[in-house]
Design a protein that fits this description.
Chain lengths: ~160, ~180
Protein backbone atom coordinates (compact mmCIF):
# COMPACT_ATOMS: atom_id res chain seq x y z
CA UNK A 1 0.00 0.00 0.00
CA UNK A 2 2.80 2.37 1.05
CA UNK A 3 4.80 1.43 -2.08
CA UNK A 4 1.78 2.25 -4.28
CA UNK A 5 1.42 5.71 -2.69
CA UNK A 6 5.14 6.47 -3.20
CA UNK A 7 4.92 5.40 -6.86
CA UNK A 8 1.85 7.65 -7.36
CA UNK A 9 3.68 10.58 -5.80
CA UNK A 10 6.67 9.95 -8.11
CA UNK A 11 4.52 9.94 -11.26
CA UNK A 12 2.77 13.12 -10.10
CA UNK A 13 6.13 14.85 -9.68
CA UNK A 14 7.27 13.64 -13.15
CA UNK A 15 4.00 14.84 -14.68
CA UNK A 16 4.42 18.22 -13.00
CA UNK A 17 7.99 18.60 -14.26
CA UNK A 18 6.94 17.72 -17.83
CA UNK A 19 4.04 20.20 -17.66
CA UNK A 20 6.31 23.00 -16.37
CA UNK A 21 8.97 22.32 -19.06
CA UNK A 22 6.26 22.21 -21.76
CA UNK A 23 4.71 25.47 -20.55
CA UNK A 24 8.11 27.18 -20.40
CA UNK A 25 8.79 25.97 -23.96
CA UNK A 26 5.46 27.30 -25.25
CA UNK A 27 6.01 30.62 -23.45
CA UNK A 28 9.53 30.94 -24.92
CA UNK A 29 8.32 30.24 -28.50
CA UNK A 30 5.39 32.66 -28.10
CA UNK A 31 7.61 35.45 -26.77
CA UNK A 32 10.30 34.85 -29.38
CA UNK A 33 7.70 34.87 -32.20
CA UNK A 34 6.19 38.14 -31.01
CA UNK A 35 9.47 39.80 -30.02
CA UNK A 36 9.39 43.45 -31.18
CA UNK A 37 12.42 45.28 -32.57
CA UNK A 38 14.55 46.76 -29.80
CA UNK A 39 14.39 50.51 -29.24
CA UNK A 40 17.93 51.61 -30.00
CA UNK A 41 18.19 54.01 -27.04
CA UNK A 42 18.41 50.89 -24.88
CA UNK A 43 21.15 49.23 -26.93
CA UNK A 44 24.87 50.03 -27.00
CA UNK A 45 26.28 50.98 -30.43
CA UNK A 46 28.64 48.42 -31.99
CA UNK A 47 30.69 51.17 -33.68
CA UNK A 48 31.23 54.83 -32.81
CA UNK A 49 32.64 56.93 -35.64
CA UNK A 50 32.64 60.55 -36.92
CA UNK A 51 30.05 60.98 -39.71
CA UNK A 52 32.70 62.21 -42.15
CA UNK A 53 34.82 59.10 -41.51
CA UNK A 54 31.84 56.80 -42.11
CA UNK A 55 31.11 58.59 -45.40
CA UNK A 56 34.78 58.39 -46.43
CA UNK A 57 34.90 54.69 -45.61
CA UNK A 58 31.93 54.00 -47.93
CA UNK A 59 33.23 56.32 -50.66
CA UNK A 60 36.57 54.47 -50.58
CA UNK A 61 35.19 50.93 -50.88
CA UNK A 62 31.52 50.29 -50.23
CA UNK A 63 31.81 46.47 -50.20
CA UNK A 64 34.50 46.63 -47.54
CA UNK A 65 32.53 49.24 -45.58
CA UNK A 66 29.44 47.01 -45.73
CA UNK A 67 31.42 44.23 -44.03
CA UNK A 68 32.24 46.62 -41.20
CA UNK A 69 28.99 48.53 -40.80
CA UNK A 70 25.98 47.00 -42.64
CA UNK A 71 23.26 45.83 -40.24
CA UNK A 72 25.20 47.07 -37.20
CA UNK A 73 24.21 49.76 -34.71
CA UNK A 74 26.42 52.71 -35.61
CA UNK A 75 26.77 55.95 -33.63
CA UNK A 76 27.91 58.97 -35.62
CA UNK A 77 29.11 62.40 -34.51
CA UNK A 78 28.83 65.35 -36.84
CA UNK A 79 27.01 68.55 -37.54
CA UNK A 80 23.39 68.88 -38.61
CA UNK A 81 23.29 69.74 -42.30
CA UNK A 82 19.56 69.53 -42.82
CA UNK A 83 16.34 68.29 -41.21
CA UNK A 84 13.62 66.86 -43.45
CA UNK A 85 10.06 65.81 -42.64
CA UNK A 86 8.69 64.16 -45.80
CA UNK A 87 5.66 62.89 -43.84
CA UNK A 88 4.24 63.93 -40.47
CA UNK A 89 5.58 60.89 -38.67
CA UNK A 90 8.99 60.71 -40.35
CA UNK A 91 11.99 62.89 -39.60
CA UNK A 92 15.34 62.65 -41.29
CA UNK A 93 18.41 64.34 -39.90
CA UNK A 94 21.25 64.72 -42.39
CA UNK A 95 24.57 64.65 -40.56
CA UNK A 96 28.02 65.21 -41.96
CA UNK A 97 31.35 66.89 -41.86
CA UNK A 98 32.15 69.90 -44.00
CA UNK A 99 32.07 68.04 -47.36
CA UNK A 100 29.16 69.24 -49.47
CA UNK A 101 28.30 66.03 -51.28
CA UNK A 102 28.63 63.27 -48.68
CA UNK A 103 26.35 62.82 -45.70
CA UNK A 104 24.85 60.33 -43.29
CA UNK A 105 21.06 60.25 -43.62
CA UNK A 106 19.54 59.34 -40.29
CA UNK A 107 15.89 58.30 -40.58
CA UNK A 108 14.60 58.75 -37.06
CA UNK A 109 12.67 56.12 -35.12
CA UNK A 110 8.86 56.53 -35.28
CA UNK A 111 8.88 57.36 -31.55
CA UNK A 112 11.13 60.39 -32.20
CA UNK A 113 9.54 63.66 -31.17
CA UNK A 114 11.02 66.51 -33.18
CA UNK A 115 9.61 69.13 -30.82
CA UNK A 116 11.87 67.86 -28.00
CA UNK A 117 14.99 69.01 -29.84
CA UNK A 118 15.84 72.36 -31.42
CA UNK A 119 17.89 70.71 -34.23
CA UNK A 120 19.63 73.82 -35.50
CA UNK A 121 21.52 73.58 -38.76
CA UNK A 122 25.25 73.53 -38.04
CA UNK A 123 24.84 72.32 -34.44
CA UNK A 124 26.84 69.27 -33.29
CA UNK A 125 24.90 66.06 -32.78
CA UNK A 126 25.44 62.36 -31.97
CA UNK A 127 22.95 59.92 -33.45
CA UNK A 128 22.83 56.14 -33.45
CA UNK A 129 20.94 53.91 -35.83
CA UNK A 130 21.16 50.69 -37.84
CA UNK A 131 23.31 51.02 -40.95
CA UNK A 132 21.19 49.92 -43.92
CA UNK A 133 23.58 50.74 -46.77
CA UNK A 134 24.94 53.37 -49.09
CA UNK A 135 23.73 55.30 -52.11
CA UNK A 136 26.06 57.14 -54.47
CA UNK A 137 24.60 59.24 -57.25
CA UNK A 138 26.45 61.79 -59.39
CA UNK A 139 23.44 64.12 -59.26
CA UNK A 140 22.23 63.60 -55.68
CA UNK A 141 25.58 63.04 -53.95
CA UNK A 142 26.39 60.11 -51.68
CA UNK A 143 24.66 59.04 -48.48
CA UNK A 144 25.29 56.43 -45.86
CA UNK A 145 21.90 55.36 -44.51
CA UNK A 146 21.03 54.84 -40.85
CA UNK A 147 17.56 53.64 -39.82
CA UNK A 148 15.44 53.73 -36.64
CA UNK A 149 17.75 56.41 -35.26
CA UNK A 150 17.78 57.97 -31.82
CA UNK A 151 19.63 61.06 -30.65
CA UNK A 152 22.43 60.29 -28.18
CA UNK A 153 23.60 63.87 -27.65
CA UNK A 154 21.97 66.98 -29.02
CA UNK A 155 19.91 69.94 -28.03
CA UNK B 1 39.47 82.44 -75.54
CA UNK B 2 36.05 83.55 -76.72
CA UNK B 3 35.34 80.04 -78.04
CA UNK B 4 36.45 78.45 -74.77
CA UNK B 5 34.11 80.72 -72.80
CA UNK B 6 31.24 79.93 -75.16
CA UNK B 7 31.87 76.17 -74.78
CA UNK B 8 31.89 76.50 -70.97
CA UNK B 9 28.64 78.51 -71.11
CA UNK B 10 26.98 75.90 -73.38
CA UNK B 11 28.04 73.00 -71.08
CA UNK B 12 26.82 74.92 -68.02
CA UNK B 13 23.45 75.84 -69.60
CA UNK B 14 22.94 72.27 -70.91
CA UNK B 15 23.67 70.68 -67.54
CA UNK B 16 21.45 73.25 -65.79
CA UNK B 17 18.62 72.51 -68.24
CA UNK B 18 19.15 68.75 -67.70
CA UNK B 19 19.04 69.17 -63.91
CA UNK B 20 15.77 71.12 -64.28
CA UNK B 21 14.20 68.01 -65.82
CA UNK B 22 15.18 65.78 -62.90
CA UNK B 23 12.89 64.93 -60.02
CA UNK B 24 13.93 62.87 -57.03
CA UNK B 25 13.28 61.57 -53.53
CA UNK B 26 15.47 59.89 -50.98
CA UNK B 27 12.56 58.83 -48.80
CA UNK B 28 10.36 56.88 -51.21
CA UNK B 29 8.02 54.33 -49.64
CA UNK B 30 7.94 50.71 -50.77
CA UNK B 31 5.97 48.11 -48.87
CA UNK B 32 5.26 44.45 -49.44
CA UNK B 33 2.58 42.06 -48.38
CA UNK B 34 2.52 38.28 -48.31
CA UNK B 35 -0.69 36.35 -47.71
CA UNK B 36 -0.23 32.72 -46.70
CA UNK B 37 -2.20 30.02 -44.86
CA UNK B 38 -0.58 30.49 -41.45
CA UNK B 39 0.15 34.21 -41.36
CA UNK B 40 0.18 37.47 -43.28
CA UNK B 41 3.45 39.35 -43.43
CA UNK B 42 4.00 42.98 -44.25
CA UNK B 43 6.98 45.30 -44.18
CA UNK B 44 7.71 48.86 -45.18
CA UNK B 45 10.80 50.71 -46.39
CA UNK B 46 10.83 54.52 -46.30
CA UNK B 47 14.37 55.06 -47.52
CA UNK B 48 14.12 54.38 -51.25
CA UNK B 49 15.96 56.72 -53.62
CA UNK B 50 14.18 57.53 -56.88
CA UNK B 51 15.44 59.73 -59.71
CA UNK B 52 13.30 60.53 -62.74
CA UNK B 53 14.00 62.54 -65.90
CA UNK B 54 10.69 63.99 -67.12
CA UNK B 55 12.19 64.85 -70.50
CA UNK B 56 13.19 61.30 -71.41
CA UNK B 57 10.79 59.39 -69.09
CA UNK B 58 13.73 57.44 -67.67
CA UNK B 59 13.71 56.67 -63.97
CA UNK B 60 15.41 54.49 -61.41
CA UNK B 61 14.81 53.16 -57.92
CA UNK B 62 17.41 52.06 -55.41
CA UNK B 63 16.13 50.12 -52.40
CA UNK B 64 18.34 49.29 -49.38
CA UNK B 65 17.05 45.86 -48.37
CA UNK B 66 18.00 46.22 -44.70
CA UNK B 67 15.68 49.24 -44.62
CA UNK B 68 12.53 47.06 -44.59
CA UNK B 69 10.88 47.23 -41.19
CA UNK B 70 8.63 44.50 -39.84
CA UNK B 71 6.37 44.52 -36.80
CA UNK B 72 8.12 41.44 -35.43
CA UNK B 73 11.91 41.27 -35.05
CA UNK B 74 12.03 37.53 -35.85
CA UNK B 75 10.35 38.09 -39.23
CA UNK B 76 12.85 40.85 -40.03
CA UNK B 77 15.76 38.57 -39.14
CA UNK B 78 14.41 35.70 -41.28
CA UNK B 79 13.78 38.08 -44.21
CA UNK B 80 17.36 39.40 -44.11
CA UNK B 81 19.16 36.15 -43.31
CA UNK B 82 17.19 33.33 -44.94
CA UNK B 83 15.30 34.90 -47.82
CA UNK B 84 16.75 38.08 -49.30
CA UNK B 85 20.31 37.48 -47.93
CA UNK B 86 20.80 41.21 -47.50
CA UNK B 87 24.44 40.92 -46.36
CA UNK B 88 25.24 39.45 -49.78
CA UNK B 89 22.70 41.49 -51.79
CA UNK B 90 22.25 44.77 -49.86
CA UNK B 91 20.35 46.60 -52.63
CA UNK B 92 17.57 46.02 -55.10
CA UNK B 93 17.08 48.36 -57.99
CA UNK B 94 14.92 49.13 -60.97
CA UNK B 95 16.05 50.98 -64.08
CA UNK B 96 13.40 51.72 -66.63
CA UNK B 97 11.40 54.13 -68.72
CA UNK B 98 7.81 55.34 -68.90
CA UNK B 99 6.63 53.97 -72.25
CA UNK B 100 3.66 56.32 -72.62
CA UNK B 101 5.42 59.51 -71.45
CA UNK B 102 3.91 61.40 -74.43
CA UNK B 103 0.48 60.95 -72.73
CA UNK B 104 1.72 62.63 -69.55
CA UNK B 105 2.04 66.38 -69.21
CA UNK B 106 4.51 66.86 -66.37
CA UNK B 107 3.92 70.63 -66.49
CA UNK B 108 0.17 70.35 -65.93
CA UNK B 109 -1.55 69.27 -62.70
CA UNK B 110 -3.48 66.04 -63.06
CA UNK B 111 -3.61 62.28 -62.61
CA UNK B 112 -2.19 60.21 -65.44
CA UNK B 113 -2.12 56.47 -66.13
CA UNK B 114 1.43 55.36 -66.70
CA UNK B 115 3.05 52.28 -68.16
CA UNK B 116 6.67 51.48 -67.50
CA UNK B 117 9.14 48.81 -68.45
CA UNK B 118 12.66 48.09 -67.35
CA UNK B 119 15.00 45.83 -65.45
CA UNK B 120 14.32 44.85 -61.87
CA UNK B 121 17.20 43.42 -59.84
CA UNK B 122 16.45 41.60 -56.59
CA UNK B 123 18.69 39.07 -54.78
CA UNK B 124 21.31 39.52 -57.53
CA UNK B 125 18.92 38.39 -60.29
CA UNK B 126 17.81 40.82 -63.03
CA UNK B 127 14.51 40.39 -64.88
CA UNK B 128 12.68 42.46 -67.48
CA UNK B 129 9.37 43.64 -66.09
CA UNK B 130 6.44 45.79 -67.15
CA UNK B 131 4.26 47.70 -64.72
CA UNK B 132 1.26 49.97 -64.66
CA UNK B 133 0.72 52.79 -62.24
CA UNK B 134 -0.40 56.34 -61.66
CA UNK B 135 1.47 59.60 -61.89
CA UNK B 136 -0.02 62.57 -60.08
CA UNK B 137 1.39 65.96 -61.01
CA UNK B 138 0.59 68.63 -58.43
CA UNK B 139 2.24 72.02 -58.45
CA UNK B 140 5.93 71.29 -58.20
CA UNK B 141 5.77 67.66 -57.09
CA UNK B 142 5.25 64.33 -58.84
CA UNK B 143 3.74 61.31 -57.05
CA UNK B 144 4.45 57.84 -58.44
CA UNK B 145 2.37 54.86 -57.38
CA UNK B 146 2.17 51.30 -58.59
CA UNK B 147 1.56 47.74 -57.43
CA UNK B 148 3.65 44.93 -58.83
CA UNK B 149 3.79 41.22 -58.09
CA UNK B 150 7.15 39.65 -57.45
CA UNK B 151 7.50 35.89 -57.71
CA UNK B 152 10.16 34.56 -55.31
CA UNK B 153 11.32 31.66 -57.56
CA UNK B 154 11.97 34.16 -60.43
CA UNK B 155 14.63 35.80 -58.29
CA UNK B 156 16.11 32.56 -56.89
CA UNK B 157 14.73 33.27 -53.43
CA UNK B 158 14.32 29.96 -51.60
CA UNK B 159 11.02 29.51 -49.84
CA UNK B 160 10.70 26.23 -47.92
CA UNK B 161 7.71 27.45 -45.91
CA UNK B 162 4.95 28.17 -48.43
CA UNK B 163 2.37 27.93 -45.62
CA UNK B 164 4.09 30.85 -43.87
CA UNK B 165 5.22 32.93 -46.84
CA UNK B 166 3.55 33.19 -50.21
CA UNK B 167 5.66 32.70 -53.34
CA UNK B 168 3.93 35.74 -54.82
CA UNK B 169 4.61 38.98 -53.02
CA UNK B 170 2.54 42.10 -53.60
CA UNK B 171 4.85 45.14 -53.72
CA UNK B 172 3.35 48.63 -53.36
CA UNK B 173 5.27 51.68 -54.52
CA UNK B 174 4.34 55.13 -53.25
CA UNK B 175 6.90 57.89 -53.83
CA UNK B 176 6.67 61.68 -53.85
CA UNK B 177 9.33 63.31 -56.03
CA UNK B 178 10.57 66.89 -55.80
CA UNK B 179 12.37 68.89 -58.46
CA UNK B 180 16.14 68.77 -58.28
CA UNK B 181 17.55 72.22 -57.61
Amino acid sequence: MERKTTSMKKSRVIFLIIAVVLLAGILFVYREYNRPNKVLSEVEAAVKIPASELSASYAGNDSLANLKFLGKIVEVDGIIKKVETPEDNISIIVVGGKEAMSSVRCTMDSSFNRQSFSLVKGAPVSIKGICTGYNADELLGSDVLLNRCVIVNGK
Amino acid sequence: MKHVLMCVAVVFITSFANAQDKFFTKSGKISFYSKAAIEDIEAVNKTTTVVMDIQTGEFQFSVPMKGFEFRKALMQEHFNENYIESDKYPKSDFKGVIVNSSDINFKKNGTYDAKAKGKLTIHGVTKDIEAEGKIVVSETKIALSSVINVSLPDYNIKNDKVNNISNNIKVTIDCLLEPFQ
